[in-house]
Design goal:
heterodimer, A: about 270 residues, alpha/beta, six-stranded mixed beta sheet, 9 helices, about 35% helix, B: about 525 residues, mainly alpha, transmembrane helix (chain B), membrane (chain B), transmembrane (chain B), ABC-2 type transport system permease protein (chain B), nucleotide-binding (chain A)
Chain lengths: ~270, ~525
């Protein structure tokens, strides 16, 4: 167990990505909702070409951090840059580099799947010919081609995640930021999505996922950060962070909050 | 159990009000407004007792039938009623079906619209106070009638969530609303011809309606007063049978809804390709326009704005007192132009957090504004101009057409500008996507009314030049002023529209994330 990984460092042991400008660099990020700090001087460096997992308990500030990193929520203070582009002074340039799947945000769900992806592409400034071609490719890739003419409101939760992912991918971003991409996605679709993301990383892209599924993050991500109460508790390569134990054990150890006992007597049937 | 469920309804209302104190104020203003309407209706019904029985019969039958049709059809077209106590959410609890039916019926009557309807219906007893037997019958019939209203609306919602939930049905609904609107001008012209050719049309319609399930129950007291007990009994039978049939249908639909609360996703009908996205230009603003127009057709919340459109000419016709003063009809086109052009000032609020897509993709505020206006203009311009032409045709005042067109286009274009500006800056408490347009947030209706008043005043001030030119032209009969008004309306209106779109777009570019944060807080 290494304790020196609790503070994020800009260098990484991964030789593939050393010395490059990081895909995402966050310094001293602060966001208050009322008096309560949601994000409390958070620092994070996501190396270019990494598959980065963000884990933390409910209310840890994951979604808030990712919203600020992608230009959807204005930070109180702190710097965020994507591939060297300062997000909040060059919003448009930064947004071109990022594909975003937000959790807890609605979609224009009265469009069909094909229309929604087309809409996302056209809004990004692509021409209709390019968008239509890419939309069909993406729907095919995500096994949604059979449902391309169905309204998104009639999609299952898993299909909705997939169409949102297609919207995030249509403008060919360099950095993908995915908030809870595997929530309520069936195992087969999850495996397919994972293949797509791994392919994206292999080809030089960077992926950030936030998730509650420790097993998944441990298997899938080469880097991980544990966030609680708006701060980074540990960050680094997955091997560094989990050390000898599993990521889940390490997470519980750092975050705390396990309770012991059997619950009230009336709940025990025998 | 019944009491618990009825209490639940009021508890939900109280809790939602506690969260937002200013909404309570809005609710109180709304209640006062309802009270005002109610007092007017009750007074009118009493006043009927001093006229002839036949006249009172015509009015009560037609108004009652309109009441039942309104209660049943409106939620059908706009998909939703006050679902404060949603039967689907009760599916997990072990509640006997009959208890549920009774509780939902009672809590339906005890809502604000239910209470208002009930009191107004009971006031028909006042219409017949000179005929005691008829007055007593009227009380019984009022209860039956109000139950028919409430259960009819519940029944259709329960059934339509079975049948009408498919995409095809939803789109059919959209077209059901749009086609008559586009033909509104010719329809008004045709109807006015009909009324001219056939006087005494209303009593004859009432005579027919009194035999239908909608009107029968309201005709009973009148026929008692007229001394036709046989006919009254028959009509009472029709009314009660209607109620029983609706009740059974509702119970059946509810039972089905509880067995299969979540209908499976359907991936059948398809291959419609890009739809409107293939029609508009492949630019960001074209995409926004295609999306917005698709929503006008598919989203019931937008339909709410459209329902007002055919009501305006009817109301103005009624206020103007029938055939005497057709010139009042000339105000229809400008009013519709305001209604339609201001209907998008809550557009971003309607998007709700889906607006995040616009932020993520970095679409410029100006393209966003332009697209929304474009989608609206596609149908608002033909409807408004068509109505202007139809109204001068009906009233036979062709000489005022240029001035009227000046005011109408001026109002329309200025309204586009004002709503583009306002919707980029403010977030309003509107129903969320998928929520019933009529549920709204408690008090949201009134806060919307206040902001509507503010924005309408803004438009009113900005269109003063073309308005004054046209009105002076009408009053002094100087045709050239009418033409001048048309020119000013088009030029000034276009200028204000461009300014509104630019300024609104600039605000959106600057404050987009803050707007999204507010949308998330309102969710």
């Amino acid at each position: 167990m290494t304790s020196d990984v609790t503070a994020t460092t800009s260098s990484t042991p991964d030789s593939r990505v050393r010395d490059e400008i990081p895909a995402l660099r966050i310094r001293g990020l602060v966001k208050h909702f009322g008096a309560k700090p949601a994000v409390d001087t958070l620092d994070l460096v996501v190396p270019s070409g990494s598959f980065y997992g963000l884990v933390g308990p409910n209310g840890a500030g994951k979604t808030t951090t990712l919203s600020m990193a992608t230009g959807l929520l204005r930070p109180d203070s702190g710097q965020i840059s994507i591939h060297g582009v300062d997000v909040w002074s060059n919003l448009l340039d930064a947004k071109r580099l990022v594909g975003n799947l937000s959790d807890g945000v609605r979609l224009f769900d009265r469009l069909t799947g094909l229309q929604l992806v087309t809409y996302a592409g056209l809004l990004s400034g692509l021409t209709r010919e390019v968008v239509v071609e890419r939309a069909h490719d993406l729907l095919d890739l995500l096994d949604l081609d059979a449902a391309s003419g169905t309204l998104v409101i009639d999609y299952s939760a898993g299909m909705t995640k997939k169409i949102a992912l297609a919207c995030a991918l249509v403008h060919a971003p360099r950095l993908l930021v995915l908030d809870e991409p595997f929530e309520s996605v069936d195992p087969v679709s999850a495996a397919n999505i994972r293949d797509i993301l791994e392919g994206f990383v292999t080809s030089g892209g960077t992926v950030i996922v936030s998730s509650h599924a420790m097993d998944l993050v441990q298997r899938m991500c080469d880097h991980v950060a544990i966030i609680a109460q708006g701060r980074v508790l540990a960050a680094g390569t997955t091997a560094e962070v989990r050390g000898d134990s599993t990521l889940e054990d390490r997470f519980v150890e750092l975050v705390g909050g396990r309770r012991t006992g059997e619950g009230p007597a009336w709940l025990r049937l025998s | 159990m019944v009491a618990t469920l009825v209490k639940l309804r009021f508890l939900l209302l109280a809790n939602s009000l506690k969260k937002k104190p200013w909404q309570l104020v809005a609710v109180i203003i709304g209640a006062l407004y309802g009270l005002g309407l109610l007092v007017g209706a009750v007074a009118l019904l009493f006043a009927l007792s001093f006229g002839s029985i036949e006249f009172a019969r015509t009015v009560t039958v037609l108004a009652g039938a309109a009441l039942i049709i309104g209660w049943t059809i409106l939620p059908m077209l706009t998909s939703g009623i006050d679902q404060t106590v949603d039967s689907a959410r009760l599916a997990t609890f072990p509640i006997p079906l009959n208890t549920l039916v009774l509780s939902l019926a009672i809590s339906g009557v005890l809502g604000v619209p239910g209470i208002v309807t009930l009191i107004a219906a009971l006031a028909t007893a006042g219409t017949w106070w000179k005929h005691p037997a008829a007055a007593i019958v009227a009380v019984v019939c009022a209860v039956v009638g109000v139950l028919t209203c409430v259960i009819g609306s519940r029944m259709l919602v329960a059934l339509s969530s079975r049948i009408g939930a498919g995409r095809r049905a939803r789109e059919a609904k959209g077209i059901l609303i749009f086609v008559p609107l586009l033909l509104l001008g010719p329809i008004i012209f045709g109807l006015s011809q009909m009324f001219r050719d056939a006087p005494n049309l209303f009593p004859r319609i009432a005579e027919i309606v009194s035999w239908t399930p909608f009107g029968a129950i309201w005709a009973v007291p009148a026929d008692v007063a007229l001394g036709n007990p046989g006919r009254a009994a028959l009509e009472f039978l029709i009314g009660v049978a209607t109620l029983a049939a609706l009740l059974l249908l509702w119970r059946w639909g509810l039972a089905r809804a509880l067995e299969t609360p979540n209908r499976p996703a359907q991936s059948t009908s398809r291959a419609r390709g890009l739809g409107l996205f293939g029609v508009f230009s492949g630019t960001p603003s074209g995409a926004v326009a295609a999306r917005a127009l698709t929503y006008w057709i598919r989203d019931p919340r937008y339909a709410q704005a459209l329902i007002a459109v055919p009501l305006v000419p009817v109301l103005i016709f009624v206020y103007a007192g029938g055939n005497d003063n057709l010139a009042a009809l000339n105000t229809v086109a400008p009013i519709i132009a305001v209604l339609l052009s201001m209907s998008i000032y809550t557009d971003v609020s309607y998007d709700n957090t889906a607006f995040a897509l616009h932020l993520q993709s970095g679409v410029s505020g100006r393209a966003d504004r332009t697209g929304r206006v474009l989608a609206l203009a596609v149908f608002a311009a033909p409807i408004s101009i068509g109505l202007a032409v139809a109204s001068v045709a009906v009233s036979g005042t062709w000489q005022i057409l240029p001035g009227l067109l000046g005011i109408t286009t001026g109002v329309l274009l200025t309204g586009f500008g004002v709503s583009s500006f306002v919707s980029g800056r403010f977030v309003f408490a509107v129903p969320a996507p998928g929520e019933s347009p009529f549920t709204s947030k408690p008090g949201g209706g009134v806060s919307l009314m206040l902001s509507t008043f503010a924005t309408w005043s803004m438009v009113g001030i900005l269109v003063i030049p073309e308005m004054v030119l046209a009105i002076v032209g009408f009053a002094l009969d100087i045709p050239i002023l009418g033409w001048l008004s048309l020119v000013v309306g088009i030029l000034l209106g276009s200028g204000l529209m461009v300014i509104g779109i630019r300024q609104g777009g600039a605000i959106l570019d600057r404050r987009g994330p803050d707007l999204l944060a507010k949308l998330q807080a309102h969710r």
